[in-house]
Design brief:
Length: 376
């Protein structure tokens, strides 16, 4: 067996009320000035102000950068970086879902390593650890609060850059389900299906290990049990807490086993049409697994068992479709505005995305086009 590495933040706080504990930990580490990277929505809900107040009570000054776009761009990274440098911050706090975490990683990475964010596209391109990053998660989720993955849209090329770098790992991740209760049903569904995609892609990955397998299968069984409940009733705190654990476990799996063609292909849809990441994954997931079942039927049979159906690839794929429909995911890419004539260029870019390198079966350009078409 090949050598494997396992990356995870050194401290990970889980559970209702752990936000205060995170602030206490930052105070104990002597941080003085924080850049809070978030989006306008979380400023409106008052959560950004709540975090600023908790920090002030712990003698940590803070400044809020709320310019993160749902698909964060190079321009967002540059704007946040300028504010960080102007205010001479010694720590970055990301507050939100995947978009603020990814943007904050970009800011923190360039702050120390210099150059521009495009220089770090690919795997482990940076020389030094980023500025310390504390990631406070409000969705369940991308798991970006605990991964070394950073996805930034290059608006000039209309693509999402996959930056996979051990130096972007946050020093502390915070999953407090109280900060997740306000998520609307559609965001709960999309982010939950993203987590399911992480677990399944990691489980069938060519570099899966017994550690990532255990994380992936547990994540899948929690998601099928609790995602419909969290979508149905956002105040169901048991479902919120279990989904926080599920998405974290899925993150542990894919942070180390990487992903596959669902993400490689979904990134192109996000970059090209500015579509929500979780919805793109949810639509593509069963179609990519039909392709993968040529070589990974036994692994997909295990996924079926974790989903509570029979040990078969077909049953697993059907269970994925059923779950997606239950939580209100659109049936196909046409509904999302994807155009048939764009498919060849989307496929070309998908084959360049680092996430696809660990898919269990490598595809030709024609095969990627066929998967997109099947998902229309
Ligand atoms: Fe994802």
């Amino acid at each position: 067996m090949a050598i494997s590495a396992f990356f995870i933040p050194s401290v990970n706080l889980m559970g209702a009320g752990c936000l205060q504990q995170a602030v206490d930990s930052m105070q104990a580490q002597g941080f003085k000035r924080a850049l809070i990277v978030t989006d306008a929505g979380l400023v409106k809900t008052g959560l950004a102000q709540k975090v600023s107040t908790l920090l002030a009570n712990a003698d940590i000054q803070s400044v809020v950068f709320d310019g993160v776009h749902p698909n964060p761009t190079c321009a967002n990274v540059n704007a946040g970086l300028a504010l960080l440098q102007e205010k001479q911050c010694d720590v970055v706090i990301s507050l939100g879902g995947g978009s603020p975490h990814d943007c904050a990683k970009g800011i923190a990475l360039v702050a120390v390593n210099g150059g521009k964010i495009q220089d770090y596209e690919g795997v482990d391109k940076s020389a030094k650890p980023q500025l310390p990053l504390v990631a406070i998660n409000t969705t369940a989720g991308t798991a970006s609060e605990m991964t070394r993955f950073c996805i930034i849209t290059d608006e000039a090329r209309h693509i999402k850059m996959a930056i996979v770098d051990k130096h972007t790992t946050p020093i502390l991740s915070v999953n407090d389900p109280e900060t997740m209760a306000g998520m609307p049903p559609s965001l709960t569904a999309a982010t939950g299906m993203d987590a399911l995609t992480h677990a399944i892609e990691a489980y069938v990955s060519t570099i899966a290990t017994p550690i990532t397998d255990a994380c992936a299968l547990k994540a899948i069984s929690l998601i099928v049990a609790y995602l419909p409940r969290a979508v149905e009733n956002g105040q169901d705190m048991e479902a919120r807490e279990q989904m926080a654990y599920a998405q974290f476990l899925a993150g542990m799996a894919f942070n180390n086993a990487s992903l596959g063609y669902v993400h490689a292909m979904a990134h192109q849809l996000g970059g090209f049409y500015d579509l929500p990441h979780g919805v793109c994954n949810a639509v593509l997931l069963p179609h990519v697994q039909v392709f993968n079942s040529k070589v990974a039927a036994a692994r997909l049979a295990d996924v079926g068992v974790a989903l509570g159906v029979k040990a078969s690839a077909e049953e697993a794929i059907q269970a994925i479709r059923t779950l997606a429909a239950t939580v209100g995911i659109p049936a196909g890419l046409t509904q999302l505005g994807v155009k048939e004539q764009d498919i060849p260029v989307l496929a070309t870019n998908a084959l360049k995305d680092a996430c696809g390198f660990t898919n269990p079966l490598q595809a030709s350009h024609e095969e990627i086009c066929a998967i997109y078409r099947a998902a229309m």
